[in-house]
Amino acid sequence: MCPHSRSECGQRDTRYALRVWRTVIVACALTSVAHADDVGDLAKQVSKIRGLPLRHAIPKDVVDRDELHARLVKMAAEQKTKDSTIAEGLALARWGLIPTTTDYLGLMVELMTDQIAGYYDPDTKKLTVSAAAGGDPQWLQMVLAHELDHGLQDQAFDLKAITELGHRHGC
Known about the structure:
Elements: H1 15-34, H2 39-50, E1 60-63, H3 65-77, H4 79-94, H5 104-115, E2 118-121, E3 126-130, H6 137-157, H7 159-168
Parallel strand pairs: 1-3
Antiparallel strand pairs: 2-3
Helix pairs in contact: 2-6, 3-5, 6-7
């Protein structure tokens, strides 16, 4: 590889073109996720299959990687989440599965930022989808159906109340 900038070597500088191309790809992904207007129809299908009533529409947010990361950092900072994640990391370190110096909380946030395609939040009652999930329409439909199922479960059973009940009883 040439140690000089591409223009000094007489080669064509393609960095700008690559940035434009990446922007186009992200825009297409965002568009395909944002135009998943069949979410209402998909929610009705999931409702029928799962036998859970769709009481009202489940709102959807589409976020890029940076926004997803920011939301995960915020969630990880909540005391219950922070305490349980730190305890999990401590247990893994004591069992010798990770080094004792590992920032397990930070590691989990980074891992989840790269791995999460979507999630349903019982606090906000919203479905959040990563823009990265929009590249493949079939994958997007599967992610939406899975997260819609959680939304339907929340409408039927109040997931937040169930989770808080478990925390009060040490689960």
